[in-house]
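User: Hi! I have a protein structure encoded as tokens and I'd like to know what sequence might fold into it. I'm fairly new to this, so please keep things simple.
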């Protein structure tokens, strides 16, 4: 496969960030580094709030613009070693190498705040976009599934607490 085609194989067309396949590969690499060298890392699962409402109230195009806006906002906050991509539907996954739990909480809150300052044009209006975030740090013996399950549980906690929130745990 040519480099150009390989790039597109890992690109989510709606958000213009890495797709699930790319994120699975990156997560596997980080887990390998953690197992071999004890390298810490965290993940952040971000979910676009009121996804269905945006889709039902406005056009599908507004939803695509909202996804691209959140993706761009998150991408612009990353260090060179960090990655973000579209995990699926209205969820984004960020993988943050060499980060402490305290810094993961700070970065997650920064992502949430910047997303909340974003607006999406739709039908001569500016829709305010917010995200809910669940984040966690890798633990000894983690698999991709166990790590993602914890992040998803924290994300659920953020949603249950009223959305536009961050929940970080071990």
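Assistant: Happy to help. Inverse folding works backwards from shape to sequence: for each of the 170 positions I chose a residue that suits the local structure. Here it is:
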């Amino acid at each position: 496969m040519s480099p150009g085609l390989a790039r597109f194989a890992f690109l989510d067309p709606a958000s213009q960030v890495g797709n699930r396949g790319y994120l699975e590969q990156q997560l596997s690499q980080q887990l390998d580094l953690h197992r071999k060298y004890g390298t810490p890392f965290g993940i952040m699962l971000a979910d676009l709030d009121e996804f269905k409402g945006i889709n039902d109230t406005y056009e599908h195009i507004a939803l695509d613009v909202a996804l691209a806006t959140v993706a761009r906002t998150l991408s612009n906050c990353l260090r060179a070693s960090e990655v973000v991509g579209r995990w699926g539907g209205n969820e984004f996954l960020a993988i943050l190498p060499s980060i402490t739990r305290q810094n993961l909480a700070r970065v997650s809150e920064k992502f949430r705040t910047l997303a909340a300052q974003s607006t999406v044009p739709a039908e001569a209006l500016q829709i305010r976009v917010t995200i809910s975030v669940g984040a966690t740090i890798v633990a000894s013996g983690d698999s991709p599934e166990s790590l993602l399950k914890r992040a998803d549980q924290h994300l659920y906690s953020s949603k249950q607490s009223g959305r536009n929130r961050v929940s970080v745990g071990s």
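A useful reference point when you look it over: The chain has one domain: 3-166. Feel free to ask if any position seems puzzling.
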